[in-house]
Amino acid sequence: MTDLIIFGCGGQGREIASMTSAEGIRVLGVVDDSPSDLNLSRLHAQGHTYLGTSASMPKIPLQTKYLIGIANGAARERITAIAEGHGLQAFTFRHASASIGSDCMLAPGTVVWPGARLTTNIRVGQHVHINQNVTVGHDTDLGDYATVNPSASISGDCQVGRRALVGASSVVLQGRRVGDDAVVGAAACVTRDVRAGSVVKGVPAR
């Protein structure tokens, strides 16, 4: 059985705790540096244990697996260094209902939610979050720490940069590039490349 530590007890962390434990993974507990009382209450209602902050967490056996349940890609990047400083090892989780082509590559730390579909020759970087019912087309690259929110559709031969966010129900058309740290708003339609660090929204996205 795989033992797992989760960083983050907000909504995304609790979703990951629920998904992984339902598939037979033993969640040893959740680490969070500033949990709200409400999130702690909801975590305990799930039956999961709060282990404390990253500075106060108990000693965990080396090579124990971890996932980061935080939506912000830059925060996931920071927490990666903390987790690996504790000797933990990034886990890769794909929900049983996700459809992933046999030649797709998922780097450590990636989480794929229920109903997601990745077709063929897709490279997914470290600690990427692919939320429920996302579709990703052929020959696409998702950079490290990218986040693709629920029901977004990324067409074939696209590139999504490091720490970029593709909003819920948005569409990225064939061959488009979304730069590092860019944000695509919910329900936007990306018809041309999105510059690094920019925020676009609307149809077409501007």
Textual characterization of the structure:
This protein has 206 residues and is an alpha/beta fold. It has two domains: 3-91, Rossmann fold; 92-198, UDP N-Acetylglucosamine Acyltransferase, domain 1 (3 Solenoid). The chain contains three helices and 23 strands. The chain has a seven-stranded parallel beta sheet, with no helix packed on it. 42% of the residues are buried. The mean pLDDT is 97. It holds the Pfam family PglD_N. Residues 3-80 form the PglD N-terminal domain. This is PglD N-terminal domain-containing protein. InterPro entries: AcTrfase_PglD-like (IPR020019), PglD_N (IPR041561), Trans_hexapeptide_repeat (IPR050179), Trimer_LpxA-like_sf (IPR011004). The active site is at 138 (proton acceptor).
Spatial shape: globular
Reported by name, the CATH topology of the largest domain is: UDP N-Acetylglucosamine Acyltransferase, domain 1
- Domain tally: 2
Determine the structural class based on helices, strands and strand pairing.
Answer: alpha/beta
CATH homologous superfamily title of the largest domain: Hexapeptide repeat proteins
> Poorly predicted ranges (pLDDT <50, ≥5 residues)?
none
**CA distance, first residue to last residue:** 47 Å
The count of β-strands is: 23
Mean pLDDT level = 97
Reported for the largest beta sheet, the result is: 7 strands, parallel
Compressed to H and E, one letter per element, the order equals EHEHEEHEEEEEEEEEEEEEEEEEEE
Strand content: 25-35%
Number of helices: 3
Radius of gyration: 17 Å
Quick one: CATH class of the largest domain?
Mainly Beta
Query: Helical residue percent?
Result: 10-25%
Task: Examine the secondary-structure arrangement and name the CATH architecture of the largest domain.
Answer: 3 Solenoid
Provide the spatial order of strands within the biggest beta sheet: 6-9-12-15-18-21-23
Organism: Antricoccus suffuscus
Pfam families: PglD_N
Protein name: PglD N-terminal domain-containing protein
Domain PglD N-terminal: 3-80
